[in-house]
Design goal:
Shape: elongated
Structural class: alpha+beta
Length: about 425
């Protein structure tokens, strides 16, 4: 027991002496060198957190846009093998009376052919100016409450509940406005020579034949959400007249609720509806799987870049500490000669490495959460498929801080260990 107490006392004394020596060396160190090391540590931290956060944020931005612009926090669609949600009206009533549901957007959807040229028939061997598209029947006021649909109206005007005979077309369906118009993709077609005010004909197939109705294009919808930019929108009551059967049954319902409450609401709806009446998902579950695969790939790329940054930082700290120890080898030998323990000297260099790592990480945290994250939230990166944001959490950042400090401590300990192992007399004499 006595021996254990002596060892502990010796260890604590080495820590105190090492702390004292580290403070003196930091105070007397070249300020430019110290600033450079801290700057490298800040860049390393930003590489660990910000670069990977931006890569993941490219995809996370599309997830967020999908939730806010189309699906809501809970998305209900027809079950596999069915063309509508069973007992839709009972489900709508349940949602309208649920205390945690803030708004819903019931939608009718159907496949349709859109003919863009009504006056001239196509010439022989010429393709008709028509496309196949998904037709959404919406209530503009309810849709606005859930998704803010009017913000996607790029040209023209939104649908008016009091007016019939008008249509809103997604920008990627019109050659003049599509982002893919210059891509020679087999099977990809667009409406040509149509714009605001043009008359188009919407046709739907029935068992008894084809039903058609002419509409005037009132607006062009543009968004980085395929469900907006590649669909056409009419008033729900007009689409219901064209649907042959199950006119009151819906194909989609988007639900606005608290993001954290969404999984609970999904389970409540499944209990209410039964397992086979509809597909009920949170917005995260409704995201296409290929986007999830892209998110995983971005995570891997971010981790790879972060690993390179860690290696660079560790080598930098190692070189700085090693050169510092080599240039002070005579001083280290004298300290050992007057009775300062090698452990205390090693601790002094470890504390120096900790100083660089902690200060660099602190500045990095301030830059990330005080400047960069608010900036990218207010000014997302404009990518063709999403508005990129910075994904960074305090828990994830502190994990990276811990990794950075561990690497820094090892990089500070090793060179000090190598120098201190030298013979004391050789160190004093510079041999």
């Amino acid at each position: 027991m006595k021996k254990l107490n002596e060892k502990r006392k010796e260890y604590l004394n080495a820590l105190r002496v090492g702390w004292f020596l580290a403070l003196r060396q930091i105070r007397r160190a070249n300020k430019s060198t110290t600033a450079l090391i801290i700057f490298i540590m800040v860049l390393t931290f930003l590489n660990l957190v910000v670069v990977s956060g931006l890569l993941v944020g490219l995809i996370a931005g599309s997830f967020e846009q999908y939730r806010e612009g189309y699906s809501g926090e809970v998305y209900i669609s027809s079950a596999d093998g069915r063309d509508h949600i069973e007992n839709s009206q009972a489900l709508v009533t349940f949602l309208e009376n649920h205390p945690k549901v803030y708004a819903i957007s019931p939608r009718h959807t159907a496949s349709a052919q859109i003919l863009g040229t009504l006056n001239d028939l196509p010439a022989k061997d010429e393709r008709a100016n028509s496309i196949g598209a998904r037709l959404n029947g919406i209530d503009p006021e309810l849709e606005e409450d859930v998704t803010g649909f009017s913000r996607f109206i790029w040209k023209g005007e939104n649908l008016d509940p009091s007016e019939e005979g008008y249509i809103v077309v997604g920008s990627n369906l019109i050659k003049k406005y599509s982002s893919f118009a210059d891509a020679n993709i087999p099977g990809l077609s667009f409406l040509e020579d149509v714009d605001i005010g043009s008359r188009v004909r919407v046709s739907m197939s029935r068992e008894s034949g084809t039903v058609s109705k002419d509409f005037i294009i009132k607006g062009i919808a543009k968004a980085k959400i395929d469900e907006i930019s590649t669909r056409v929108f009419v008033l729900d009551r007009e689409l219901k007249r064209m649907i042959p059967v199950n006119k009151e049954e819906l194909q989609e319902i988007s639900v606005k609720t608290d993001y954290e409450y969404a999984p609970i609401l999904v389970q409540e709806l499944k209990d209410f509806m039964g397992p086979n009446e509809a597909r009920i998902q949170t917005s995260d579950e409704a995201i296409p799987s290929f986007l999830r695969d892209i998110e995983s790939t971005m995570n891997v790329l971010g981790n790879a870049l972060s690993s390179i940054a860690l290696v660079v930082a560790s080598i930098t700290v190692f070189i700085v500490i090693f050169i510092n120890a080599v240039t002070k080898r005579k001083f280290i030998g004298i300290m050992k000669g007057i009775g300062i323990s090698p452990s205390a000297i090693q601790f002094s260099y470890v504390f120096q490495a900790m100083f660089y790592g902690i200060l660099g990480s602190t500045i990095g945290l301030f830059l990330t959460f005080g400047i960069l994250k608010p900036y990218f939230n207010a000014n997302p990166i404009d990518f063709p498929f999403s508005d990129g944001i910075l994904i960074a959490t305090w828990s994830g950042s502190f994990t990276r801080v811990a990794i950075l400090l561990i690497v820094t401590l090892v990089a500070g300990y090793l060179p000090a260990k190598l120098i201190i192992r030298k013979n004391t007399l050789d160190s004093i004499l510079g041999r």
